[in-house]
Amino acid sequence: MTQASPPLSAAGREPLRLGPALRARPPTGRDRLDAILAAVLERIDRNLAVFTDAFPAPSSVDGVYPAIDNSEWTNGFWTGMLWLAYEASGQARYRQAAEVQVKTFKRRIDDRINVDHHDLGFLYSLSCVAAWKLIGDACARDTALQAADLLLERYLPAAGIIQAWGDLSDPAQAGRMIIDCNLNLPLLYWASQVTGDPDYARAADSHIAQAARYIVRPDSSTFHTFFMDPVTGAPREGKTHQGFSDDSCWTRGQAWGISGFPLVHRYKADPDLIALSARLATYYLNRLPDDLVCCWDLVFTGPPHERDSSAAAIAACGLLELARALPLLDPDRAAYEAAALATVETLGTRYLLPLGEPGTGILAHGVYHMPNRVGVDEACLWGDYFFLEALVRLTRAWEPYW
To answer: What is the model's pLDDT at position 191?
Structure first.
């Protein structure tokens, strides 16, 4: 049996080795951030003709996203980018394209097109919840509630988790939770607020507690995936799916943890969630190359191993969300903010793909699935989304769609 992590309040952070350098780093100016944001919007504009009635594939091929229909777990990231672009610029063309896409999410949930998984939050928070929050789209609200209902069906009461993938009767997937699900939980909390039904929030509360207990290791690294016995609720084992090994720390998973625990804290005001995110953030920052753009697994800390710009973008958003929730006098708060800003500046300076044909991605050097050699050294749609989200967070007051 896998041993659970110690109680969160008793588990301290390791020393942040980059702390003094990050706190002393001159902040990136607003003009520079605005210039990077303008470059991202220019690339979105170039892609609107292709990706209004269609969506980008999860990762690019030679830097260009193939066009697909609304059938992948990643489609919400592009619609979320359109909503972010609309908020950042006020330009109606982004809203109009997003509204076209939101209608396809209604058809997708009605027709049950590839919704047999936990990524309904990635799909519907960034598309339909955003449409409800920004423009009061009642149909989008109802569609998001349908998605929340499907997500709630995946809750396994004995194990206290939301099963990640597959038909609930599939023994190969039974009792599997993965760290990505942290960012799907806000859909349940939002549904609980909108409807007044506490069952959504209770399931989310249970899942985040189990993720904190079993996915986070005692040294503040994380498993990608963890299996619970769906009948008895007993913990079984931690495994990887996309990392280097079961014992290593897949970087995008660590970034999901840094981001997801403080996002849940917005709904469930538990200081242990912030303490846990800080532990994960310090572990992550202490294993980065000099430019703060991570390798694809944190067992690697530099060349010749592949960078993952998409994980770096997720982590930057997580660091900003974490810093927002930390006390002003926390010794590492300023360093977390500085690390997020430095990451965004590096991505905007060294990792932007040049303007190319319609469909060209935004961030180069991302990794989708290294073990399967899918989307390696390519643009990844979630990386593009979180890079833009980080820029919006840094340049204006922003209310998350999560």
So the answer is: 98
Averaged pLDDT of the chain: 95
Give CA–CA dist 313/261, Å, rounded.
16
Write the pLDDT tens digit of every residue in 177-197.
999 999 999 999 999 999 999
Q: Are 230 and 159 in contact (CB under 8 A)?
A: yes
Q: Tell whether 3 is covered by a domain.
A: no
pLDDT in the model for residue 53: 98
**Looking at the domain assignment, is residue 383 inside a domain?**
yes
- Rg of the chain (C-alpha set): 20
Residue 23: its pLDDT value, please?
78
Catalytic-labelled residue, pool 137, 180, 332, 384? 180
Which residues does the chain have with pLDDT short of 70?
A: 1-11
Does 183 fall in a domain?
A: yes
DSSP string, 275-328: HHHHHHHHHHHTT--TTS--BSBTT--STTSPB-HHHHHHHHHHHHHHHHHS-T
Query: Among residues 119, 205, 308, 384, which one is catalytic?
Result: 119
In-domain check, residue 117: yes
pLDDT at residue number 6: 36
CATH code for position 327: 1.50.10.10
Q: What pLDDT is attached to residue 20?
A: 79
Query: Rounded to an integer, what distance in angstroms lies between the CA atom of residue 78 and that of residue 81?
Result: 5
Total number of domains in the chain: 1
All residues at 6 or more sequence positions from 171 whose CB lies less than 8 Å from its CB, including other chains: none
Peptide bond before residue 304 is cis, with ω within 30 degrees of 0 = yes
Checking 108-111 for CB contacts under 8 A at 24+ apart, the result is 108/70, 108/71, 109/143, 109/146, 109/147, 109/150, 110/146
Give the structural domain span for 173: 8-395
Instruction: Confirm if 121 and 184 have CB atoms less than 8 A apart.
Output: yes
Query: 346-384 as b/e, with b when 16 or more CB fall inside 10 Å?
Result: bbbeebbbeeeeebbbbbbbbbbebeeeebbbbbbbbbb
Which tokens hold the place of 334?
A: 């300023």
> How would you class 113 by CB atoms within 10 Å of its CB: exposed for 0-12, middle for 13-18, buried for 19 or more?
middle
Known catalytic residue at 119 = yes
Contact 57, 108 (CB under 8 A): no
